[in-house]
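Honest question from a wet-lab person: if I give you the sequences of every part of a complex, can you actually get the arrangement of the whole thing, not just the pieces? Trying it with mine:
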Amino acid sequence: MISIQRRSGSSLRWNVVCFSAAILGAFLSSATLLALSGGDAVKAFSALFTGAFGSQNALFGSLAKATPLLLVGLGTVIAFRAKIWNIGQEGQVLAGAMMAYWASLMVGSLPYWLALSVIALAGLSGGGILGLLAGYLKTRFHTNEVISTVMLNYIVIFFLAYLLDGGPWMETGVTVAYHQSPPVNPALEWPELFARGAGKLHIGFLFALAASAFCAILIDRTSLGYDIRAFGSNPTALRFRGTNVRRLLLVVMLLSGALAGLAGAGELFGTSHRLRAETLLGIGSSGIVVAMVGGLRPSGVMLAALFFGALKSGAIYMRLQSGTPAGLVSAMEGLVLLFFLCAAVATKFQIVRSNVHA
Amino acid sequence: MLELMQGPLLISILAAMVRIATPLLFSAMGELVTQRAGIWNISVEGTMLLGAVVAYVVASTTGSPWLALLVAVFACALISLIMSFVTIVLKAEQFVAGLALNLLASGLTLFWFQTYVIGREPPKFAGFEQVDIPFLSDIPILGPVLFSQRALTYVSFLLPPLVWFFLYRTRYGLEVRCVGENPKALDVKGLGVGRRQCLAIMFGSLMSGLGGAFLMLGYSDRFVPDLIAGRGWLVVVAIIAGNWMPFRIVGAIFIFALLEAVGIHAQVVGVAIPHHVFLVLPYVASLALLAGLRSRTHQPVALGVPYSRE
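Yes, you can. This is the full assembly:
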């Protein structure tokens, strides 16, 4: 007789089985989706793989796409580990990019590395302030952070739309209006790590790696990290222990937003060089997926960011080779997340075979 | 002269308010029942989007808006089984499940949109027609505002009283509310908690699908991926701001609808303020409402807490 029982510990082998099944399930259902829409799944996925890992440039391209996802994912981990449901990453990425762009208009005369630091700090503070605002609404007015962060997303999106469409940052002197800013000062672009054009891997990648180490240490080895984890599992106990829960909540939202903001600044100064909503929207929601699929652990988030960065990077080549729309990757994100959610539950159970004589 | 101009403008704004409120009312009354059963389902936005997509596909292939509506509602009821499975059977974090459904819906929509809609000749599209109610639509001011709308708008007027009656005056409604407050009490009596939650999720989902389908078929002639544009989230805001009580929720919805209606008309009339200011108003108002109306006395105690018998 076979029965399903709750597992006492966790088993590495069973975890690998569950999560491999989840990835397989996501790929199979994506392939079904492609087949239903008349596409050639084998051709599309092989193009996707070639576009992501087929050459050195492709690999760098994947790392470049993974960079903002990693930063946003890490920020999400900090908030979600405390069970503070910050889903304002879209807005925080935009706010970081906007603040960085604003700063870049003023620091042209500074020495290069100082200017770069100011821009990075501006990115951090742009996202951080927006996160802090949602945190303040929660501590002061008990506004549910899920709702407030989503509403702030829309508010920031419309604010950027205003700035780039009739507002002060609109590109003027062109015949067609694209709702984008003029290019950033070329002297302030973030340096690329390898020869120009090699996948546009910029210094933000190093920032993201540093942020990964920072988050891993913060969560596992500091008292703030302990408080964050404790707040997620038992906030009442933390309150009785005398921890200033309000301050903790504000700090978490600040850090979470700041990392998303840095991702926005990096995309603007490292990759797109123009402030434009279309290039930034979607990074926030992908970053949330990365954090969840990465199991809310910095090491897992690094893997997940690479995986989804590769998907996004390969999607461009896939579209050229097989005509499959890049939107397939967005659908796959949702599918992977849903399958991982189920797999995460499955890891807590075991299948037991026993001989019961009735 | 000025007054002549203002009369029609006011009527037009109010009529727009009523039609904008219609899909929100459908979704909100469904989501209210879901939340009253203790399920913190934030996938309203995604479900409305799916409803709109299905309605668009069916309407543009068969030409019948009513069939499109029916299929959309049915599809969303089916989709709700995913939410039920993840939250009731697997007992996963409800917020995460809702988030996953939202992302899945927007991802699938984007893929479908890029495959089938973009860069093609838009299909001929027959939406719902305006239905004037005889005699009532001739009443000055009230007539054009309330009684010259789409048929489903009249249905949406009846919905809040019906949902109120269900929740507060029927046995099953009491049981659904009990699931949200004290599921153990129900379980001890031998009444299934999971079945009631599953049905409540399904009702919420199909109503959200109805709202999304109406948004598509009622007033648009083409599909855009951001058709829902945060309306599903405004519905959740309205429920919190309305303290989980049907008629207060209706009040919050009409505030959002009025703001949007004013915004549309300000663009048409040409007020010297950037139109983005009007577009952003409902979202700013929602934050203000949540900060101002802090009464959570009717929030279901077990909202978002998975029930397990231990």
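Two things worth pointing out. Residues 2-36 of chain B form the longest helix (35 residues). The radius of gyration of chain B is 20 Å.
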